[in-house]
Automatic annotation (TrEMBL):
<dbReference type="InterPro" id="IPR022033">
    <property type="entry name" value="Rav1p_C"/>
</dbReference>
<dbReference type="InterPro" id="IPR015943">
    <property type="entry name" value="WD40/YVTN_repeat-like_dom_sf"/>
</dbReference>
<protein>
    <submittedName>
        <fullName>Regulator of (H+)-ATPase in vacuolar membrane</fullName>
    </submittedName>
</protein>
<feature type="region of interest" description="Disordered">
    <location>
        <begin position="1290"/>
        <end position="1309"/>
    </location>
</feature>
<dbReference type="InterPro" id="IPR052208">
    <property type="entry name" value="DmX-like/RAVE_component"/>
</dbReference>
<dbReference type="GO" id="GO:0043291">
    <property type="term" value="C:RAVE complex"/>
</dbReference>
<feature type="compositionally biased region" description="Low complexity">
    <location>
        <begin position="1319"/>
        <end position="1328"/>
    </location>
</feature>
<dbReference type="InterPro" id="IPR001680">
    <property type="entry name" value="WD40_rpt"/>
</dbReference>
<dbReference type="InterPro" id="IPR036322">
    <property type="entry name" value="WD40_repeat_dom_sf"/>
</dbReference>
<feature type="domain" description="RAVE complex protein Rav1 C-terminal">
    <location>
        <begin position="646"/>
        <end position="1237"/>
    </location>
</feature>
<feature type="region of interest" description="Disordered">
    <location>
        <begin position="1319"/>
        <end position="1359"/>
    </location>
</feature>
<dbReference type="GO" id="GO:0007035">
    <property type="term" value="P:vacuolar acidification"/>
</dbReference>
<dbReference type="Pfam" id="PF12234">
    <property type="entry name" value="Rav1p_C"/>
</dbReference>
Length: 1359
């Protein structure tokens, strides 16, 4: 019973309104070895090709365009089409179905079952078996079977009774139709065909030398005249010549010659190698059909290798010949189309030859010997023109001959052809009975040329092959080959041909159910997992060895290839409860055997994945129901053991995915991908550092995930849904949050063709095999620029209007390539890492290069600067002068730089301006303040492009807006909080806003959170109070109440209320403020007013009354909670309660620090510890491992800059990992220069574990720079030589020349020297006499930090 889908989950037929996406290659499956397995027709001005593969009917419109695939319950044997109506008839041995086209618009066409034709039952009760179909006139369908010849009518008006219906495969019922008449036949029919006028039927049985002709005497009843056409050998093919579709229009016209009344012509081919042409006789002729002429197909190719050396065939059997016939009408139309082309005055001898050929109106006979030789002959067509009664009219004439034709036939195999012309283009579909359907294309001029080489006449457009059963799985081997297996027992091997197409390399049947397979290195052996054993096969289907297992196949089995050593290859077979490790071992004589290694029990509540890290290591992943992913790298098991393998999973290697009950897990050495339980969300994790690189919510359930890493290290991910696949590639880490690390570059769909995706497999760079039913869709390795997302187009600097074609590998490489040194974010990070001089050096070099560079020319990504020259920390000429800045900006405005997008080039201009801006303050600000000021100015430059200073109001007046204020992040605030030049920085910011500092500006700048000096903060806060008071007209004391009360200036606030006579609350508020708020009743009244104001949602004013009640905790909590103003809450806590006040401690410990830990915000976490005066914890927060779901932004490499500033003389235990982690992030961001500099120049500080000497002194400490140890003084020496102000004065060496004092008299100089000598003597004496407590108390052993080796740093990073 046919079905338009493989199962109940398929798309309903009426939804099938859109054809599938284009692919680079389609492998619909192996065609059925049947003489009527293919058909072609034109419907609605479009050419369709159909062919059957086992129980599936494929309908295609091109070599790579599958329109619909319809599955049936039984294997199909024949397909026939009716071009006028587009109906398709398909037959299995027991059933015949008629599929009717349904059109929607001009582009949406699909087929549905409309009729089920009931075959007759023979006299002995044996059911008829259909074997051949033929369409007649007015919807008639002739079915040739093993017992009967039956004629059906498919038009509605032919119903004789109420139509009977029957359900089909659980779908909508279809109408059943009985035969109009049925005639018994003596033997099973091989061929049967109605002539174009439907007057005559020609039939032939298997191995029969007689063709039976049935001439209809009545169209209402099955009455016939019969005759037989005798052949000297078995008939292998018969075919009626099709009518010229324009014949009726030209019949009797003056532009056409006279036509015969009976144009029906029958062509037959027998095993004697002769094609015979039979002509229909007249109504009064004695014979129904007469032999017109015959063509010797064997003699047509005299030089064929199938003949003997003397050029003759053997007497025992004629060599096989394959032929197809082209009607005269089609051939003449194609030649005329070729003649109508423009030739630019050139004479084509081939066209002149064909022009002469068509004057005879020939039917063209093309014969092939199967070994690459082709010969074309013409026979003057019967019925097209009045022929003279001469013998030459019936004699075949030669047209063309060719050798080395690409179209060949395997020895002993049959081949059937379908041909047609599209204008002058020649199309040939060849069905080979060895499991291939080939689509060849050429043109009429070249194919029938008398001189063109054979290899140039046709080119192969498609080679359709594959399995004849629905596929169950596919996997790519390490050698780039593809292994596929069907649900039954068939296994096929595929490899890439020279043309890039996937070609079948071999295959075999295992006779057992296949669950998984893997290919050994070299591709000569295949491991196959069956129900009770793992079998090792050669590619020629010979089983080499097997290994018994007891793993349950209920939830499927997975087979993974592990590492190899000198004489063995390791594998693992696993399900959700057990893992079996085994290996292939070569014995002494070279035979390969399977050897059991060990078993490992697994938790059935987890999903597992095994993969090889190297030949000696295996990565083992498990994700549980809570979404916790655990990773462990273990040695590859190679020693046989009877005990369970001990492979514990380290809890230190856990990653939180944030998914509940994951349903899918896919991984490779670097990445892991997991999908949620409902499949509507998937996440990608970096296994090295545990970062969530990408997450996506899906509108439909994810069913397949497949990762791929090419030789260049680029990562690809295929996400498969029910009928769609998305291909994503990995890009660089981008600091702006709207940029995605993974970008979608391709989306393919097989929706509306009646199939659902079964599995996915990568088969090369950017090429994916999508398996659905018995069909394999191979995606192309290219993508149009217009099909990419706008974000990807911008990152690749593509013009969205152009239709450039890019390779997927090129897109992936460009998205992940290192950033050039002129990339704006690299310059930004150079400044953040304290390398201002390097940024200036790059800009100067860029300015010099751009003077002589034009667009389109090559520009070195490092501007030909060596790494050492780029990162040299010399301060010589480190300023960015005005001329250089002006020159760079002019060049950037006129020229488009490569490797960066337009938006990035605009960002580069802003970076240049920001660097020039801070260069004026480098001498007065430290690095932390410059860091803050650079971010401030850079954001101002970004905002300047979108903001304006004035806007016109509707009434024509001009309203002056506030200047733009950048929102400074905790990253900038934390750096500024550790600056020692905060006051100059504050002055610069206040001056930028013309000394008009309002609270919105201060809040955005974070002034109250990074300003350390309490007096400076009080000054700023008082200025903010005055600004708030004057923010309205007339001034309102309400706006300034919180500020003055936080500064303990109630009297000032009371004075402002006394003069605010216009305010409606002036009298009551003035009287209330006159109270003594040290009394309990006054505090109670203030609290009541605060709660009342909270009810009115006047939260800031309510906080002011809480301060009147001396309840700073409530005020701060209200500001941080309901108001959401952390900066104001911090300022009030610091100014009202002091730096160590309880309200500040509560705010930081109970609100800000938990928030930072929840969000994994290292900057806020470090700021909180700094606010609590815990410097050590502030440094540790920047490098310690984080919990929960993490992303790379949380481990910003800039944290290492601040950490180096806070750590002092001590390195934390996590510092080594943090350095490598930051270097890897910099590398993923494309900043290889900075990454290399970090691992190369990072300085580790620690105290060694040397023994304590008898005199109480410890061994010398060491400082390590990238593994290079430098001796440091001992602790006692450090204490003795502790820096002091006195140490800056030293006596003048004897060898130094005397310096004459000018400004001071010699007496004062002598007194200063004497005083200095006394003070230094007292200091030395105090250091030499330890206290009693110091003598008695033993010293604890120094903390030891295990110093990493220099090579391990570089190796872990990848250098």
């Amino acid at each position: 019973m046919p079905s338009t889908s493989p199962g109940p989950e398929a798309v309903p037929p009426k939804a099938a309104a859109v054809s599938s996406s284009d692919f680079a290659q389609i492998l619909p499956g192996a065609p059925t070895a049947s003489v009527q397995a293919t058909a072609t027709f034109i419907f609605r001005h479009k050419r369709y090709v159909t062919y059957i593969t086992s129980s599936q009917l494929n309908i295609l419109t091109g070599p790579t365009k599958l329109v619909q695939a319809l599955a049936f319950a039984e294997g199909l044997v024949a397909v026939a089409v009716e071009s006028n109506t587009g109906k398709i008839a398909v037959a299995s041995k027991s059933q015949v179905y008629v599929l009717e086209p349904i059109a929607e618009g001009w582009t949406k066409v699909w087929w549905e079952k409309s009729l089920c034709l009931c075959l007759c039952v023979g006299k002995e009760g044996v059911e008829d078996e259909a074997s051949y179909l033929s369409w007649g006139s007015e919807g008639e369908l002739l079915v040739g079977g093993s017992k009967n010849l039956s004629l059906f009518s498919t038009i509605p008006s032919s119903r004789t009774t109420t139509p009977a219906v029957s359900p089909v495969d659980g779908e909508a019922a279809v109408e059943e139709r009985k035969a109009l008449w049925s005639k018994p036949v003596a033997s099973a029919i091989q061929y049967v065909a109605l002539c174009p006028s439907a007057n005559v039927i020609a039939s032939c049985s298997w191995y029969d030398r007689l063709v039976k002709i049935w001439r209809r005497l009545s169209f209402e009843e099955g009455l016939f005249d019969h005759t037989y056409l005798a052949h000297p050998a078995a008939v292998t093919h018969l075919e009626w010549r099709p009518l010229d579709q324009h014949m009726n229009e030209r019949r009797g016209s003056s532009i056409s010659g006279r036509h015969d009344e009976d144009p029906e012509v029958l062509w037959t081919i027998a095993t004697d190698g002769v094609l015979r042409i039979w002509r229909m006789g007249g109504m009064h002729d004695a014979d129904i059909m007469t032999l017109h002429t015959a063509v010797d197909l064997v003699g047509a190719i005299p030089q064929s290798p199938t003949l003997n050396t003397n050029g003759t065939a053997s007497h025992s059997a004629k060599p096989p010949r394959y032929a197809f016939i082209i009607p005269a009408s089609s051939f003449s139309a194609a030649v005329n189309a070729a003649l109508g082309r423009r030739t630019n005055g050139k004479i084509s001898h081939s066209l002149e030859h064909l022009k002469d050929v068509i004057t005879r109106s020939p039917d063209v006979i093309v014969t092939l010997d199967g070994h690459g030789r082709m010969s074309a002959w013409g026979v003057q067509s019967i019925g097209h023109k009045r022929r003279p009664e001469t013998p030459s009219a019936e004699r075949a004439f030669h047209i063309a001959h060719a050798e080395d034709l690409g179209l060949t036939v395997r020895v002993g195999k049959n081949m059937r052809f379908q041909t047609w012309f599209a204008d002058d283009a020649f199309h040939l579909v060849a069905h080979s009975f060895d499991g291939h359907v080939q689509w060849w294309r050429g043109d009429v001029e070249t194919f029938f040329s008398p001189s063109v080489a054979g290899g140039e006449r046709l080119r192969l457009e498609a080679d359709w092959s594959g399995h004849d059963r629905p596929l169950a799985g596919a996997i790519a081997s390490t050698d780039g080959e593809l292994i596929t297996w069907s649900k039954s027992s068939d296994i096929s091997l595929w490899s890439r041909s020279n043309t890039g197409q996937l070609a079948k390399k071999g295959g075999f049947s295992t006779q057992k159910t296949v669950y998984a397979a893997s290919c050994s290195v070299g591709g000569k052996l295949i491991n196959v997992a069956h129900d009770e054993k793992v079998a090792l096969y050669r590619t020629d289907s010979k089983q080499v060895d097997s290994l018994v297992h007891d793993l349950s196949s209920e939830n499927g089995l997975q087979l993974a290839e592990l590492g190899q050593d000198d004489n063995s290859q390791s594998h693992v077979l696993y399900n959700r409860t057990t893992a079996l490790f085994f290996r292939e071992v070569a014995d002494e004589i070279g035979d390969v055997l399977l050897e059991h290694v060990g078993m490992m029990n697994l938790d059935n509540q987890c999903l597992y994945h095994f993969s090889a890290v190297s030949d000696d290591e295996v990565m083992y992943l498990a994700v549980d129901l809570t979404g916790t992913l655990r990773r462990q790298v273990i040695p590859t098991p190679r020693t046989e053991t009877e005990d369970e393998l001990d492979m514990p999973i380290s809890t230190n290697e856990t990653i939180e995915t944030g998914l509940q009950q994951p349903s899918l897990l896919e991984a490779n050495v670097d990445l892991a991908v997991a999908a949620s339980g409902d499949g509507n969300r998937f996440v990608i994790f970096d296994l090295r550092d545990g970062y969530m690189e990408y997450e996506q919510d899906c509108s439909q359930a994810v069913e397949f995930l497949k990762l791929y890493k090419n030789a260049a290290g680029n990562q690809y991910l295929a996400v498969g849904y029910k009928s769609e696949v998305e291909i994503l590639v990995q890009g660089r880490y981008e600091h702006h949050r709207e940029a995605k690390t993974w970008c979608k570059v391709k989306q393919v769909s097989i929706e509306n063709i009646g199939l659902s995706i079964t599995t996915l497999a990568w088969c090369g760079d950017g090429m994916l095999a999508v398996v659905a039913g018995s069909v394999m869709f191979i995606t192309s390795e290219t993508v149009l620029a217009t099909d990419l997302e706008p974000e990807v187009q911008e990152r690749l600097d593509l013009d969205a209007r152009t239709k450039d074609e890019l390779k997927v590998t090129e897109v992936s490489a460009r998205l992940a390539q290192p950033a050039p040194v002129w990339h704006p974010r690299l310059l930004t990070h150079l400044l953040y890492h304290g390398s201002y001089a390097a940024a200036v050096r790059i800009l100067r070099q860029l300015s010099e290069r751009l003077k002589f560079w034009s667009e389109g020319e090559y520009l070195h990504s490092a501007l030909d600067l060596p790494h050492d020259a780029v990162m040299e920390q010399s301060n010589t000429s480190a300023e960015l002068d005005d001329a250089t800045v002006r020159d760079i900006l002019e060049q950037l405005a006129a020229k488009k730089l490569p490797a960066i997008s337009d938006s990035e080039q605009r960002r580069l201009q802003a970076v240049v301006e920001a660097l020039h801006y801070i260069s004026k303050y480098r001498r007065g600000l430290d690095d932390n303040a410059l860091h803050y000021l650079f971010s401030f100015n850079l954001q101002l430059s970004y905002m300047a492009a979108t903001s304006t200073t004035t806007t016109n109001q509707p009434n024509g007046t001009s309203h002056i807006q506030q200047p733009p204020v950048p929102q400074m992040s905790w990253h900038d605030i934390t750096f500024a909080s550790h600056s020692s030049t905060q006051q100059p920085l504050l002055d610069i910011l206040i001056q930028h806003y013309d000394n008009k500092l309002a609270w919105p500006i201060a809040r955005a700048l974070g002034l109250t959170t990074w300003l350390s000096d309490r007096e400076a903060l009080a000054t700023v806060f008082e200025s903010l109070a005055q600004s708030a008071y004057r923010s309205t007209s007339p001034p309102d004391p309400t706006n300034a109440a919180l500020f003055f009360l936080a500064l303990h200036k109630k009297a000032t606030l009371l004075a402002l209320w006394r003069i605010a006579t216009w305010h409606k609350e002036q009298r009551s508020t003035t009287n209330f403020l006159k109270r003594d708020f040290s009394l309990p009743e006054a505090k109670t009244a203030a609290r009541k007013n605060a709660y009342a104001l909270m009810g009115k949602r006047r939260f800031e004013y309510a906080a002011a009354f809480f301060l009147l009640a001396d309840d700073a905790g409530s005020a701060v909590g209200l500001l941080a909670g309901q108001c959401g103003d952390i900066g104001l809450a911090v300022a009030v806590a610091r100014l009202y309660g002091g730096e160590q006040s309880e309200c500040l401690q509560t705010l930081v410990r109970q609100r800000l620090r938990p928030q930072a830990e929840k969000e994994n915000d290292r900057w806020l976490m470090s700021w909180c510890f700094s606010a609590l005066k815990e410097r050590h914890e502030a440094a540790n927060a920047l490098i310690k491992p984080l919990d929960g779901v993490r992303n790379w932004q949380q481990d910003d490499p800039r944290t290492m800059v601040l950490y180096r500033h806070l750590r002092k003389d001590r390195s934390e235990q996590e510092e080594y990992r943090a350095v490598l982690r930051a270097a890897r992030i910099l590398r993923r961001m494309g900043f290889w220069v900075l990454a290399l500099e970090m691992v190369k120049g990072w300085e580790f500080k620690h105290v060694s574990a040397a023994a304590t000497h008898a005199n109480g002194k410890t061994a010398n400490a060491e400082t390590t720079t990238n593994g290079i140890h430098h001796e440091r003084p001992s602790a006692e020496d450090l204490a003795a030589n502790e820096p002091s102000l006195l140490d800056s004065f030293s006596s003048v060496p004897d060898s130094a020349p005397a310096v004459k004092a000018v400004e001071e008299p010699p007496s004062r100089e002598a007194q200063a020297a004497a005083l200095l000598t006394k003070l230094q003597a007292k200091k030395a004496q105090a250091q030499q006499v330890p206290t009693m407590a110091e003598k008695e108390k033993p010293k604890p052993p120094p903390t030891q930090f295990k110093e990493p080796d220099a090579n391990s740093l570089l190796d872990s990073f990848g250098f």
